[in-house]
UniProtKB/TrEMBL annotation:
Pfam families: Response_reg
PANTHER family hit by this protein: PROTEIN PILG, STRESS RESPONSE REGULATOR PROTEIN 1
Domain Response regulatory: 18-132
Keyword Phosphoprotein belongs to the record: yes
InterPro entries registered for this protein in UniProt: ActR_PrrA_rreg (IPR047772), Bact_response_regulator (IPR050595), CheY-like_superfamily (IPR011006), Sig_transdc_resp-reg_receiver (IPR001789)
Modified residues (4-aspartylphosphate): 67
Keywords: DNA-binding, Phosphoprotein, Transcription, Transcription regulation, Two-component regulatory system
Organism: Neorhizobium phenanthreniclasticum
Name the UniProt record assigns to this protein: ActR/PrrA/RegA family redox response regulator transcription factor
Length: 188
């Protein structure tokens, strides 16, 4: 039975199972790399934007999992570098600071999905192997009304190029109120 599962996994991954994982959380990176190797990927890892870009230029991967916020910059720079070297890469962006504006940017740069941490290996595998046009399952716990409001504020804030005064004006909100909202973590 294990042989059948391996054949199915190989079929889902295609002839090139190369995967680049870029994350500055060392223990998470190693756990995820082991989990993806056990699912049939040939894994390479990087712990910084610079290392991720260098590895994507040396051997552009078919698959990529990239953390959004890295110690030396933005993971979207790695996605962009991968896309310049290989257009058919399926890239997933991981982040602990999810907001819709960043997700939209990630997709425009070529990411196929955007997952919030902590994402488990099954979620990541499913996102990477999802066929074009296939719809993701509806989440069991959809966003709360508070989270939807927070996401909207974040989107407007990003559209205003992170200008608090302009964002407050567009949202018809007091600047200090907006600053307090922006200083808090995203609601569940």
């Amino acid at each position: 039975m294990d042989t059948h599962l391996e054949k199915t996994t190989d079929h889902e991954l295609g002839p090139d199972p190369s995967l680049l994982i870029v994350d500055d959380d060392g223990p998470f990176l190693r756990r995820l790399a082991r989990a993806m190797e056990s699912r049939g990927f040939v894994v390479d890892t990087a712990e910084s934007v610079a290392e991720g870009i260098a590895k994507s230029k040396a051997r552009p991967p078919k698959y990529a999992v990239v953390d959004l916020r890295l110690g030396d910059g933005n993971g979207l720079d790695v996605i962009e570098a991968i896309r310049q070297n290989r257009e058919d890469t399926k890239a997933i962006v991981l982040t602990g600071y999810g907001n819709i504006a960043t997700a939209v940017t990630a997709v425009k740069l070529g990411a196929v999905d955007y997952l919030s941490k902590p994402a488990d290996a099954d979620d990541i595998f499913n996102a990477l192997t999802q066929r074009p046009g296939e719809k993701a399952d509806v989440p069991e716990n959809p966003m709360s009304a508070d989270r939807v409001r927070w996401e909207h504020i974040q989107r407007v804030y990003e559209m205003c190029e992170r200008n608090v005064s302009e964002t407050a004006r567009r949202l018809n909100m007091h600047r200090r109120t907006l600053q307090r909202i922006l200083a808090k973590r995203a609601p569940k």
